[in-house]
Amino acid sequence: MKKMFISTLFLSALVGLTNCSNSGNSQNTENQDTATYQESAYSQEAPSTQPQQAPELPQKEPAQSIPEFKFYKVKSGISFTKQDIPKGKKTAFILFDPGCSHCQVEAGQLAKNYSKIKNINIYFVSMNDPALMANFLETFAKELVGKPNVEVLYDRNQEFIQKIHIPKQFPANYIYTAEGKLQTYWDGSRSIDKIIADYTK
């Protein structure tokens, strides 16, 4: 029961955070500064005249290796687990909100640079309603549609924030090596040149 309460609290805090930002919070495994959760205003009651502060939560480091998980392919509803990730390639998880303009821009930029990332497993993961995610790539990143290394996944049980990381902003990128070890991560918007450099280094 306590575990469920904590997960619900994390989810509430995540939903209350700004899901798009002009400035990203860059982190990597070589320079791991201890980060703390930013306080953000959110409303607990409707209507409300005074926004309240979300509680400050400890910001843990991301999972150092890809954990066991179960997501679902948005198009088919088929489950997708760690065992389904093709071996021998880097893997990038992008935690996103389909309504986030910065997430839309990043997806479009990745699409235009597909030739540079075609050998990386790329998974767009969201806790949003699958109906909102269904046409995300078709709308904002047409060049990624149908690519064998790209998938949009529904996180039905909020496993990402429980097992991998709770970011401060969307989009949040997590790059793992071919051996499944965390290489680098960041949240918020970033230039496409820097994104490609981190994906391919």
Task: Give me a quick take on this structure.
The chain is of the alpha+beta class and 201 residues long.
List the helices and strands and how they pair.
Layout: H1 2-16, E1 25-28, E2 41-42, E3 52-53, E4 70-73, E5 79-81, E6 91-95, H2 101-112, H3 114-117, E7 121-126, H4 130-133, H5 136-140, E8 150-154, H6 159-164, E9 172-176, E10 182-187, H7 192-200
Parallel strand pairs: 6-7, 7-8
Antiparallel strand pairs: 1-10, 2-3, 4-5, 4-8, 6-9, 9-10
Q: Can you put this structure into words, describing what you see?
A:
By secondary structure, the chain is α+β, with helices and mostly antiparallel strands. It has one domain (21-35, 60-200): Glutaredoxin (3-Layer(aba) Sandwich). It has 7 helices and 10 strands. It has helices spanning 2-16, 101-112, 114-117, 130-133, 136-140, 159-164, 192-200, and strands spanning 25-28, 41-42, 52-53, 70-73, 79-81, 91-95, 121-126, 150-154, 172-176, 182-187. The strands form 2 sheets. Strands 1-10-9-6-7-8-4-5 form an 8-stranded mixed beta sheet, with no helix packed on it. Strands 2-3 form a two-stranded antiparallel sheet. A hairpin with a 5-residue loop joins strand 9 and strand 10. The radius of gyration is 16 Å and the shape is globular. The N and C termini lie far apart (43 Å).
